[in-house]
């Protein structure tokens, strides 16, 4: 084995050979793209095989037909005359752009009750999924919908709270699956509403009222009917006859002309478990007997009638009262004999005589609200044949008096957050921390002239910031900008631009804003030198290489200057490909090892791992090799660098001629032989500024210090001679 001492003593020979190897690798890298067998654009899939697999017992699958309400195209799946379910594509109903700017098209199937049966991805163009996450994981995500309901409020990630059902996300593609969830749930809800599986809701929640059991006042029949505590439904023969005009029962049991104004039915109805009503209608013992068995949520309706029987002549024990119902909102309540008590007498003063008196119990499962309006319905039936009959219904309204109930205020739920709002809410901690880091960086830049006068502190501060960039921004948050983002932005500008597309990833959005601002003020240097996770990782690896005293390889400036062009050639090639196919450009953009390193954390095929590892390990002996020669993103950011407003990196007239100290110390060789800093290549490490203010390192300062000492010595001699 060759010893380290041998390498050190033969450094020059080692460097010469290594320079040739490194230069060759860089040239080969220009044409190197990892094998594309792991990179593909998901081709559109035929939905019919998935539908057939989900419904193996189906005897008929309709053509894709628009629903009568909404016009949403769906397949209806039947087994003989029974509907097994409905299937539809999300792009036909809820076309929501995902991370790539294109929607993810999915097949969704629900049953007639609104339960999800399956969800399958038919087509996607997601760069994150294209580059390393197998489709099997994407399908595992959509498999979670089976058994859930369109009535559920589904949320990706987190715990079940606030009425949401949590489903597992997909590491490395969080934004994508959140968009997919919105597409599935929005499309399914629209279809379910169009098919009347679920009702549209205004979102207002009205808690159920409670009866004021302590409120009671004596009252007679006239008082209770007068203030609306007891309501009346009155029908004359004329009203009933008119309701059957134009039907087969028009002349059945029709009243004579002189009988038209006669009473047909007179029915009083009320809520018995209101103390002021029930205790006045019945004796104390009867009221106690009626209300004591009531369970929470149960109520009593009192019905008292003359004329047409509300019980019905066909009523028998075990049967149903088919002539009356109670309606409240969408709830229709019928009664059986087990919910009925016959009343033989009422004790309230002034009450008329009644042929029929009954009390009916409304059971708790109906969720009857005593404070909300309800209606009493009477069905009048006329026989048109031995078996056939027709009926008409007549309703009487009941509005509860406020003095009898406590009605909580309606709950106005906050409007459901948009997908963008949900993402930012979920990432609020990361957003705050990232903005804090950016503020710290701005302070470093604004006070750089002070900080660089303390070299040790400045180096420690920078290395600490780079560690945070790698660990938090890179590995924890996946905040690595890519040339793919640039192409997506350009594609959006050329088509339908929407900020929502770029706001879907808060970390990436904030980093792009920071890159744009710092690029305008200082050029490309700040992002590449401080905020790029892969650049920070390379620099830290190089610091480690120098710490263990590995020999460093520096290319001759003439070679180095020409290798700059490689990244611009790569940028132009990728841009040209993106004009024809953004998906293809995303594949070739794999020359960036960013996804492998930070988004997928090396969990992918070996060629990608080998490429990323090569770029990282090269930094042990050569500072930021990938950034300097191959990075298309760096090339894109450097194009507008000439437009930067500030030039805060100070230079002297002696810089370059004759002094070359900073140029030799610049580890990425961004200082040209004439002493000028090339801001298209500078990474703003501030090392040159540390030297600029160091009177022990900077030759012009050292020369000035010698002159000042010489002048001081001459002044001392002159004073001494005078004395």
From TrEMBL:
Q: Membrane-crossing residues? A: 431-452, 464-490, 502-522, 565-585, 605-622
Annotated GO CC locations: plasma membrane
A single Pfam family, by name? FMN_bind
Q: Does the keyword Membrane apply?
A: yes
FMN-binding domain spans which residues? 98-191
Q: State where the protein is found.
A: Cell membrane
Q: Name one GO biological process term.
A: positive regulation of DNA-templated transcription
* Principal cellular location given in the protein's record: membrane
Q: Which GO terms describe its molecular function?
A: DNA binding; FMN binding
Keyword terms = Cell membrane, Membrane, Transmembrane, Transmembrane helix
Q: What PANTHER family does the entry give? A: ELECTRON TRANSPORT PROTEIN, ELECTRON TRANSPORT PROTEIN YCCM-RELATED
Q: What's the name of the protein?
A: Regulatory protein NosR
Q: Which organism is it from?
A: Moritella marina ATCC 15381
């Amino acid at each position: 084995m060759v010893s380290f001492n041998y390498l050190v003593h033969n450094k020059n020979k080692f460097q010469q050979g290594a320079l040739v190897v490194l230069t060759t690798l860089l040239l080969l890298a220009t044409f190197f793209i990892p094998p594309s067998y792991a990179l593909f654009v998901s081709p559109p899939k035929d939905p019919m095989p998935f539908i057939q697999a989900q419904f193996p017992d189906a005897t008929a699958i309709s053509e894709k037909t628009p629903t009568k309400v909404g016009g949403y195209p769906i397949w209806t799946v039947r087994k003989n005359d029974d509907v097994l379910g409905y299937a539809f594509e999300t792009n036909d109903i809820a076309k929501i752009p995902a991370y790539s700017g294109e929607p993810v098209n999915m097949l969704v199937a629900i049953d007639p009750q609104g339960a999800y049966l399956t969800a399958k991805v038919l087509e996607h163009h997601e760069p994150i999924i294209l580059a390393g996450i197998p489709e099997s994981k994407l399908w595992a995500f959509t498999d979670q919908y089976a058994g859930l309901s369109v009535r559920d409020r589904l949320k990706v990630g987190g715990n079940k709270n606030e009425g949401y059902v949590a489903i597992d996300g997909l590491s490395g593609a969080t934004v994508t699956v959140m968009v997919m969830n919105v597409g599935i749930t929005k499309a399914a809800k629209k279809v379910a509403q169009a098919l009347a599986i679920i009702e549209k809701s205004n979102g207002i929640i009205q808690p159920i009222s409670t009866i004021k059991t302590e409120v009671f006042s004596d009252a007679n029949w006239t008082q209770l009917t007068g203030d609306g505590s007891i309501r009346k439904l009155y029908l004359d023969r004329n009203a009933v006859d008119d309701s059957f005009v134009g039907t087969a029962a028009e002349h059945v049991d029709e009243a004579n002309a002189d009988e038209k104004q006669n009473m047909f039915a007179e029915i009083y109805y009320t809520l018995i478990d209101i103390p002021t009503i029930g205790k006045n209608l019945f004796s104390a013992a009867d009221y106690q007997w009626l209300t004591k068995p009531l369970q929470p949520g149960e109520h009593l309706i009192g019905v008292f009638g003359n004329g047409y029987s509300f019980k019905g002549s066909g009523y028998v024990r075990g049967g149903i009262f088919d002539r009356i119902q109670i309606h409240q909102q969408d709830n229709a309540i019928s009664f059986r004999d087990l919910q009925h008590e016959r009343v033989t007498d009422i004790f309230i003063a002034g009450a008329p005589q009644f042929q029929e008196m009954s009390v009916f119990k409304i059971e708790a499962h109906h969720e009857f609200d005593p404070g909300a309006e309800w209606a009493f319905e009477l069905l009048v039936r006329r026989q048109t044949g031995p078996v056939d009959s027709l009926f008409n219904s007549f309703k009487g309204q009941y509005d509860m008096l406020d003095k009898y109930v406590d009605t909580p205020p309606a709950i106005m739920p906050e409007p459901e957050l948009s997908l963008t709002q949900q993402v930012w809410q979920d990432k609020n901690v990361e957003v705050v921390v990232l903005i804090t880091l950016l503020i710290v960086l701005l302070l470093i830049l604004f006070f750089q002239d002070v900080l660089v006068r303390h070299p040790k502190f400045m180096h420690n501060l920078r290395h600490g910031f780079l560690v945070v960039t790698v660990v938090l921004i890179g590995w924890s948050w996946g905040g690595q900008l890519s040339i793919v983002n640039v192409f997506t932005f350009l594609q959006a500008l050329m088509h339908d631009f929407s900020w929502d597309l770029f706001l879907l990833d808060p970390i990436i959005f904030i980093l792009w804003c920071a890159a744009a601002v710092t690029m305008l003020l200082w050029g490309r240097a700040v992002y590449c030198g401080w905020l790029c996770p892969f650049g920070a990782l390379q620099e830290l690896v190089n610091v480690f290489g120098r710490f263990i005293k590995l020999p460093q390889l520096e290319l001759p400036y003439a070679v180095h200057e020409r290798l700059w062009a490689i990244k611009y050639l790569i940028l132009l090639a990728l841009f040209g490909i993106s004009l024809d196919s953004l998906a293809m450009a995303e594949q070739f953009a794999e020359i960036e090892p960013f996804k492998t390193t930070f988004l997928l954390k090396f969990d992918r095929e070996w060629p990608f791992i080998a490429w990323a590892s090569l770029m990282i390990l090269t930094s042990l002996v050569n500072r930021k090799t990938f950034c300097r020669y191959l990075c298309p993103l760096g090339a894109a950011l450097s194009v507008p660098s000439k437009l930067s407003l500030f030039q805060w990196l100070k230079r002297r007239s002696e810089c370059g001629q004759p002094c070359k100290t900073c140029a030799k110390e610049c580890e990425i060789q961004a200082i040209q032989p004439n002493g000028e800093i090339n801001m298209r290549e500078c990474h703003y490490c501030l090392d040159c500024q540390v030297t600029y203010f160091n009177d022990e390192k900077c030759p012009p300062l050292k020369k000035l210090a010698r002159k000042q000492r010489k002048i001081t010595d001459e002044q001392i001699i002159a004073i001494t001679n005078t004395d």
